[in-house]
Amino acid sequence: MVTVSVKWQKEVFPAVEIDTSQPPYVFKCQLFDLTGVPPERQKIMVKGGLLKDDADWSKVAVKEGQRLMMMGTADEIVKAPEKSPVFVEDMPEEEQVINVGHSAGLFNLGNTCYMNSTVQCLHSVPELKSALTLYPHADRRNDLDSSSHLLTVATRDLFSELDKNVKPVSPMQFWMVLRKKYPQFGQLNNGVFMQQDAEECWTQLLYTLSQSLKRQVSSDTSDTVKDIFGIDLVSRVHCAESGEESTETESVYSLKCHISQEVNHLHEGLKRGLKSELEKASPSLGRSAIYVKDSRINGLPRYLTIQFVRFFWKRESNQKAKILRKVDYPLELDVFDLCSDDLRKKLEGPRKALRDEEGKKLGLQASGKSSSSKDNDVKMTDAVESSSGSGESSKSAPQEGVLPEKEQHLTGVYDLVAVLTHKGRSADSGHYVAWVKQENGKWIQFDDDNPIPQREEDIPKLSGGGDWHMAYICMYKARLTPM
To 5 degrees, how large is the angle CA 197–CA 202–CA 206? Predict the structure, then answer.
């Protein structure tokens, strides 16, 4: 670390730390936080000319206590004159966010698109944001390590910054804490930060938040992240050779869509992901044997996360390879046939209420048929347009006759609200992007610092089959109904 002072216009910043193990672009992002001058506009005078984003610090030869000169214009908010028409760009940024209809983008700090896309998807979950706002600045609990606490605080603060800004936000503090908690995200290759796996970032971040937010919101026994994302599985483990059979239960934060030559649709991949073979010791045989593990969903979350298992380790090249096969996924997903018998019974009432509710919206009479009908339970795509796809009732004022979400029930039907895609041939290269549905029903592509409006009909086209962006993680929101 080298400490320097930086002069910009009439201001002097006396103690700015430079981590010389990181590229100068990171230093520029620090100055962006201090001055508001975006990295691409900064001109920093050093020995030999202007400081380049990928320069070698050893050749720049910056010294302890040295004063650096920076030139560049900061982003400013134009204030509207009195008694004149008020345009969107003249409003405070908090009001601009409301008018624009989406939050800010995130600067890429050097192959950090995996992190940016993960943050944008999770930031779209209002229940998670609400839980984070209740999280204290000070860590009052001895059972939580400091790095977990700091990462939770950094997540909360970054979410808040995204909501308050229209112009891109620098995730510098969040990234520094993420690398401290999980050093693999700070790996360097020839002095440049390496691309990382977005699914690993997603999983590690959710794990940390689950530990930090445990018992934080409503009671001493609640687990906020589990309530929002947790999936309970019950599994039958059977050995055909010995006849041994047992039952196992576990909780996970995502379902896996396994991809093979026979898988053309998400539902097929999910079924494959719930069935697996494992080898373990058989007490009756006195040796190892093959067991079949057949799992069913026994508890559903408010947000269902699905990972397309596209990456695998290729021994010949000693690196992760990617399955490019096209796998279609729907805007509406019904997982009733993936559930256990016990859960299906619990879902029957809410599903009948949902069918009746959507039937009324379409001008149809309430169905008098039994809710246990298999055709009725599995086929629920006739009234997609009648339901609010955004599903953000927790963020808006309750309508007359509409119950709060806590008083509504899960149905097993979900609406797509976010897609994290990967473009490229390897998990350790390429580019990650987030596609997120807004409260107003519009879709936004968050390509780092560049939010781009998209048409909903184009979102299912991110299904693979080439070198274009293809779905790696899909997040669905539960469609709820009163009983």
Answer: 150
Q: Cα–Cα–Cα angle for 268, 271, 277, nearest 5°?
A: 125
Amino acid in position 344: R
* 247-275 per-residue burial string, b: 16 or more CB within 10 A, e: under 16: eeeeeebbbbbbbeeebeebbbbbebbbe
Tokens representing 113 are 């698109």
Query: How many alpha carbons lie under 13 Å from residue 120 in its C-beta half-sphere?
Result: 39
Give the total residue count for the chain: 483
Q: Which is it for strands 303-309 and 470-481: parallel, antiparallel or unpaired? A: antiparallel
| Predicted TM-score of the model (pTM) | 0.75
State the pairing for strand pair 450-454/443-447: antiparallel
Q: What is the dihedral of CA 37, 40, 45, 47, to 10 degrees?
A: 150
* Active-site residue set: 113, 431
Pure H helices in 299-438: 341-361, 374-378
Contact indicator for 216, 282 with CB cutoff of 8 Å: no
3-state secondary structure of 472: strand
What is the identity of the amino acid at 448? D
Fold of 1-75: Ubiquitin-like (UB roll) (3.10.20)
Distance, CA of 150 to CA of 263 (rounded, Å): 42
Query: What backbone torsions phi and psi does residue 286 show, to the nearest 5 degrees?
Result: 75, 20
> Computed over its alpha carbons, how large is the radius of gyration of the chain?
25
Average pLDDT of each block of 10 consecutive residues along the chain (483 residues)?
Answer: 90 89 86 87 86 86 90 67 51 55 89 97 96 78 74 96 93 96 92 92 96 64 81 95 93 95 95 93 91 96 96 76 92 97 96 89 58 41 38 39 65 98 84 95 96 95 89 97 76
Where are the strands (E) in 102-240, listed by range?
Answer: 188-189, 192-193, 231-238
